[in-house]
Amino acid sequence: MVSENLLSSSKRSPTTPNFCNSFTTRIFSDVAGDITIVVDGESFLLHKFPLVSRSGKIRKMVADAKDSNISKLELCNLPGGPHTFELAMKFCYGMNFEITTANVADLRCAAEYLEMTEDYREENLIARTETYLNEFVVQSLERSVEVLATCEQLPPIAEEVGIPNRCIEAIAINACKEQLVSGMSHLDCNSESTELKSSCLEWWVEDLSVLRIDYYQRVICAMGSVGVRLDSIVASLMHYAQISLKGIGKSQIWNPARMKSSPNMEENDQSIIVETLVGLMPTDKSSSIPLNFLFGMLRMAIMLDAAIACRLELERRIAFRLEMVSLDDLLIPSVRSGDSLFDVDTVHRILVNFLQRVEEEENEDCGYESEGIGSPGHGSLLKVGRLIDSYLAETAPDPFLSLQKFTAMIEILPDYARVIDDGLYRAIDIYLKAHPLLSEHECKKLCKLIDCQKLSQEACNHAAQNDRLPVQMTVQVLYSEQLRLKNALSGSSGDGLLSQRISSGIPSAAMSPRDNYASLRRENRELKLEISRMRVRLSELEKEQMYMKQGMIDKSGNGKTFFTSLSKGIGRIGIFSGPGGGRHQKSGRKPRGPEGKTGRSRRYSMS
Questions:
Q1: Whole-number mean pLDDT of the chain?
Q2: Less Cβ around it within 10 Å: N or C end of the chain?
Q3: Alpha carbon of 176 to those of 172, 185, 190, 427: distances in Å?
Q4: Disordered: where is this region (predicted)?
C-alpha cells in the first residue's frame, strides 16, 4: 500500500507560458499528457483515461464539455488543496502512497468531491479511506483525536461524510472502555494511592487539548452521555483551560486603556472558550470542581467581558460552597477604570446567592432538628460571616471604595451571622481611617451597624479610646461595658434576657401555623446567638481566672500584693461562686469602691 520510493515519480517542471503564476506537474514523464487540471492555481498535466475511469466528477466534466478535445479543467474548492489532489491522482494511476491519520480525512473528502465511488471502479478511493477509518482510526482514541484535529481545516463536506461524528463517538467510547479495562474505575481510584489516581484521571486529558473548542465541546458532551467519570471530565476541562487561556497575563488586569478599546479577535476567541467551558461543567452536585479553578475562570470571564450568564453561573457555583472559600479567592481585581481596586460587586452577588441557598435549605427542611446549635446551615453562615468581615477589613483601605458599597456588604448579612462584632468593628475602623473626609452623618450611619453588646472586652477597650468613632458610639460602648460588668458581678450574665426570649417564643393562637413556625425559627436563631455569646464571655472569664491564678502564684511571697490581686480579681469570678462564696464576694467589693466611683465619674464626664 505504501512505498515511499515511488513518490519520486512525480516531477515538477518550471512554469509553463500558458498558465501564469502556476506550474505543471507531470505524473508520467515519458508519456505526454492530454489534459491539464488546475487546483487552487496549481496545474497538473495528466491523462484523461485513468482519471475518468475512477472519478465520476471528472468524467461528467469531460462529457459535458462542448469541445470533445478539451484539454483543461479547473476544480474549485477541492478539500485538501493541491497536495491532496496529487495523492488522489496517484491513486488513479495505481501508484503506491501511504494513508495516514494526517491525510485520511482530506483524502476521504476529496474522494467524495471527485465522486470516486464503487460505481466506477471496485475498491475506489472512498472505499479505501473508509476501510482505514473503520479498521484503524475509530479503534484507537489517540488516532481518532488526530483525525478529528485535521477536520478543523476542512469544508462542510467533512460533516456530510460524517468523519467528525465518527471520531467523536470513537473518542468517547474508547475513553469509557479503557476506563473499565484498565481497572481504574472511580472506586478503584478512591482506594489507591494519590499517584495512581492522578494517572487515572490524566491519561487522555492532554490529547484532547489540541482540539478546537467546538470539537472539544462535542467530545465532552459525548463522554458525558456514555458514562465517563465526572472527575475525569473536570480534569480535562481544567487542563484545556490552562492550555488555551494561558496567554491572558496580569498586564491585562490593570490596563484601563484596554477597557476603552474594542476586544480583538484573540480575546473574542478566548471569551468563547471561557463561556463554552463553563457550560460544560457538570451539573451533578456529586462532582467537586476545585474552588481555585472556579475563581480562576471567574477572573477570566471578567477580564474577557464574557457573557453575563457565564459569570452568573460561576458566581452561583462558588456561592454553593462559600463557607470553604479563602480570603485570597475573594480578592478579585476590578477591571473598570476609576472603580475600586477590588470587584466588590461580584463578591456581593456571590454573597446574595449564598444567603438564598441557605434560605432555600431552611424552607425545604420541615423539621426542627436543623435549628439546633450544631445546625450545618448556621455553622456555614458563621464561617461566611467571619470571611466577609476579613474581606471588608482587607478592602477597607481602598480610597476608591464607596461608602454605599461598603455598607451594602455589611447590611446584607443577617444579625445571627456574627457571634461577636470584633471583625466588623475592625473593618469599620480601618475604613474610617482610610476615608477621613467622611461627614459626621456618614460616620454615625456606618457605626450604627456595630452592635456594642457583641464586642469583646478587648474591642470595647479599643473603641472607648478611639478618636475616629462618633461620641455617641463611644458612649454606647461604655454603657454596654458597664452593663456587662454589672451582670458579671450580679451573676445574671444575660439569664433574664434568655428567659425572656424563651417565654416570648410561645406561639400565639391567633397566628397561622406557618407564621408560628417562622416565629419559632427566629426565636431559635436568637437563642443560638445568645448561647454563643455566653460561651464567648465564659471563655473570656476563664482566661481572666487563669491569669489571676498565675499572678497569685508568682507573687505568693508578698502578702500585700497577693491579697490586693485577690480582692481585685475575685469579683470577676463571682458568677462561678458557690453557696459559701458570698462572703468572699462581699469582701472583694469593698476595696473596689473608690475605683468604681472614679470609673463612673470618668464615664459620666465623657457623656
A1: 77
A2: N
A3: 6, 10, 18, 52
A4: 575-607
- Region 600-607 average pLDDT: 34
State the Cα–Cα distance between residues 454 and 477, nearest whole angstrom.
10
Look up residue 45 and give its amino acid: L
Q: Give per-residue pLDDT as tens, 248-282.
A: 654 444 444 444 455 566 778 899 999 999 999 99
Task: Please calculate the CA angle 283-284-288 and round it to the nearest 5 degrees.
Answer: 95
CA dihedral 238, 241, 242, 247 (to 10 degrees): -170
Cell numbers given for 415: 444579625
Angle at 215 between CA 211 and CA 219, to 5 degrees: 100
Asked which of 16-30, 462-476, 565-579 is least confident by mean pLDDT, the reply is 565-579
- Cβ atoms of 42 and 78 within 8 Å: the answer is no
More confident residue, 434 or 593: 434
Residues 513-549: pLDDT tens digits? Answer: 445 556 666 677 777 777 777 777 777 777 777 877 7
From CA 398, how far away is CA 341, in angstroms rounded?
7
Strands in 42-46's sheet, in edge-to-edge order, are: 11-12, 24-26, 42-46, 35-39, 72-75
Residues 6+ apart with CB under 8 A from 189: 196, 197, 200, 201
468: exposed, middle or buried (Cβ count in 10 Å: 0-12, 13-18, 19+): middle
Amino acid at 371: E
Distance of CA 535 to the CA centre of its chain: 37
Q: Which residue has the higher pLDDT, 595 or 63?
A: 63
Alpha carbons 207 and 210: distance in angstroms, whole number = 6
CB count in 10 Å sphere of residue 406: 22
Span between the terminal Cα atoms of the chain, in Å: 102
- 3-class secondary-structure state, position 20: coil
